[in-house]
Amino acid sequence: MKYKALVIILTCLFMPLKGFTHSAHCEDTKLNRLMEDMKFQLKAYTEAFKQDDTKLMQESLLKLEEYTIKSKDYIPLKILNNMDSNTTTIMDLTEIQLEDFKNYEHEINRLLTYIERLKRTSDKSTIKSTLKTIKKHSKKSHKLFLKDCH
Q1: How far apart are CA 40 and CA 38, in angstroms?
Q2: Predicted pLDDT at 84
Q3: For 88, left (φ over 0), alpha (ψ -120 to 50), or beta?
Q4: Of 133, 118, 127, nearest to 59 (Cα)?
Q5: How big is the chain by its Cα radius of gyration, in Å?
Q6: In contact, 119 and 111? CB cutoff 8 Å
Q7: Residue 127 and residue 108: Cα distance in Å, rounded?
Q8: Which of 6, 45, 67, 149 pairs as cysteine with 26 (C-beta 3.0–4.6 A)?
Q9: Tens of pLDDT along the chain (150 residues)?
Q10: DSSP characters for the chain?
Q11: Residue 80 in contact with residue 98, Cβ under 8 Å?
């Protein structure tokens, strides 16, 4: 009976650890950290817009642009399909993966055009509509390139 209880306790202790390890492996990439930073900067920009803080808007937008440009240097895990994200280069990709990566780059470039639109305008309605477009674009891109690790 004591042995059974010990097995149950140990199983319970290690089950969450296994789930956490898988989740951490899936999400712990340089690209993921960049995407989180991009998300944070977009939220900061939106909040600054609501508060009419043009200085903070510009700072957030410049960081968002910087992170977006850097994200082109990485390959999403979904495209890698279980290849090592730390050692795999574009040269290692199959034709299909390369095509997916080109689509990823296209979507990043699209996001950069929206960021450029925000940089060039101070018109509130243009800013609002561009933020809505970015939100839709982000959802679409997540569906295309975010790996489901669960």
Answers
A1: 5
A2: 83
A3: beta
A4: 118
A5: 20
A6: no
A7: 19
A8: 149
A9: 554 543 444 444 444 333 333 344 465 788 889 999 999 999 999 999 999 999 999 999 999 999 999 999 999 988 888 888 778 888 999 999 999 999 999 999 999 999 999 999 999 999 999 999 999 999 888 888 877 765
A10: -HHHHHHHHHHHHHHHHHHHHHHHHHH-SHHHHHHHHHHHHHHHHHHHHHTT-HHHHHHHHHHHHHHHHHHTTS--HHHHSSS-TTT--GGG--HHHHHHHHHHHHHHHHHHHHHHHHHH---HHHHHHHHHHHHHHHHHHHHHH-----
A11: no
Tokens encoding 86? 């730390």
Sign of CA dihedral 94, 100, 103, 107: negative
Q: Which two tokens stand for residue 108?
A: 């990043």
Distance between CA atoms of 104 and 99, rounded to whole angstroms? Answer: 9
Residue 1 is predicted with a pLDDT of: 53
Report which residue type is found at 67.
Y
This prediction's pTM: 0.78
Rounded CA separation 75/93 (Å): 10
**Would you state the structure tokens that stand for residue 87, as one six-digit string?**
């050692």
d(CA 136, CA 141): 9
